[in-house]
Amino acid sequence: MRTFKFKNASSLEKIQKIQSFNPAQILAVGFFCLIFIGAILLMLPISTNAGHELTFIDAIFEATSAVCVTGLVVVDTGTTFTLFGQCVLLFLIQIGGLGFMTIGVVIAVVLGKNIGLKGRLIIQESLNQLSLEGMVRLVKFILIFTLLTEAIGAVLLSIRWSTDFSFPTSIYYGIFHSISAFNNAGFDLMGNFTSITAYAGDFSIVFILTSLLLIGGIGYTVVLDLWVKKYNGRLSLHTKLVLYMTAILIIVPTIIILLLEYNNPGTLGSMSFKDKVLGAYFHAVVPRTAGFNSLDMAELSLGTQFVSMVLMFIGGGSGGTAGGIKITTFAIILLAVWNLIRGNEDINIFRRRIPKDLIYRAFAITIYSIGIIAFILFLLTITENAPLNVLLFEVISAFGTVGMSLGLTPELSPLGKILVSLLMFIGRVGPLTIAFALARKHNKVPYKYVEEKIMIG
């Protein structure tokens, strides 16, 4: 009888501990569990073609890349995995892009269950929202909008690919690449790690894929705000900033990449002017944070590699399927530096003032992210035998959940694969979310020390 009470008490304590997790911890644990389940499924004989069995580390890497909608792969997706294995990847991409809490809320609503405060807090954390208001309504909108957009993309891609493949193959390719593109995952089925290089000058493929990437990457809040604008006619400051920065981060990099690669025989050099513009435009869009590539990554100039790394680090919009530090974070830092140079105390934009706590958070996210990237880069310089620029490209790509690589990913050592998988996980869940998940609760200090200045600069 005593033994039964002891076990029961122990189980009760475990349940209470789980229930005491904060939203950030639950979010991190949920992604980890999804990755583990996905890895087990990918290791099944039914998931891979004969002679392409995955090791546990490779399966973890592939599952992490899919759940974290990154696109880095250690094996070729099109030739390694069977239809079942590809469907597992597609399922992981969809759940990873939507967020497992989004799916959980939909199931709960279908079953007629109420979403409690803790559930709403987790949704708020996973979607990076500023308020708890309308969380369930937002989740419903996200699901409907995602499925509708992916369906439209799948139809358009299927029609285009029907001229290149059989009818069933074109439909399947359309569905797979539409989901992969909207969720900014970058997985493809073209085979031999070629991505969509064969379609670099194909306007329809470039337009459809980039449209899906941008719509999924700007953030669901922006999409909902644009939809609501039809009724109230006013956009939020967040939406304006995201749209303006997105336009700038497409136009400027397109021009720079076009100039850098114009005469490069390994990339744009042999193309017509129209195809060069399309190729430069596509490569300006995908680093934030898609993973597809229409140019031979190994042939890119160092300048284009640098531009790509900057774009990968910035990423897309908050609350969407993109990674990176986010467009708004980058914009706030630029505005803060510019106003500091001009001697302004406040940051004003579009006749609105940015709160100081957001400025502190933007700098914290950026410095934290740089620290994580630098630490993993240092470890990879020990475990891998590759040039520094190749390692840095791989690390930023993993952190930004981009999926672009200079060819290093399949050559990573087992320890290198673990490190890159960890970085993809951190990049998807968010560096501050990881920090909050691991941090212990501390009581606020009820006093302040005397202020004293120090010399800087």
Structure explained in plain terms:
The protein has one domain (20-438). It has 19 helices and two strands. The chain has helices spanning 2-19, 23-42, 56-67, 77-80, 83-98, 100-110, 117-127, 135-161, 167-182, 203-217, 220-232, 237-261, 273-285, 302-314, 327-342, 356-383, 388-399, 414-429, 431-438; strands spanning 348-349, 352-353. With 457 residues, the chain is mainly alpha-helical.
- Tally of separate helices: 19
Give the strand content: under 5%
Mean pLDDT score: 83
Describe the global form. globular
Order of strands, main sheet, comes to 1-2
Structural class: mainly alpha
Rg calculated over all Cα atoms: 23 Å
Helix content: 55-70%
Summarize the structure.
This protein is an all-alpha fold and 457 residues long.
List the helices and strands and how they pair.
Blueprint: H1 2-19, H2 23-42, H3 56-67, H4 77-80, H5 83-98, H6 100-110, H7 117-127, H8 135-161, H9 167-182, H10 203-217, H11 220-232, H12 237-261, H13 273-285, H14 302-314, H15 327-342, E1 348-349, E2 352-353, H16 356-383, H17 388-399, H18 414-429, H19 431-438
Antiparallel strand pairs: 1-2
Helix pairs in contact: 2-3, 2-5, 2-7, 2-19, 3-5, 3-18, 6-8, 8-9, 8-10, 9-10, 10-13, 11-12, 12-13, 12-14, 14-17, 15-16, 16-17, 16-18, 17-18
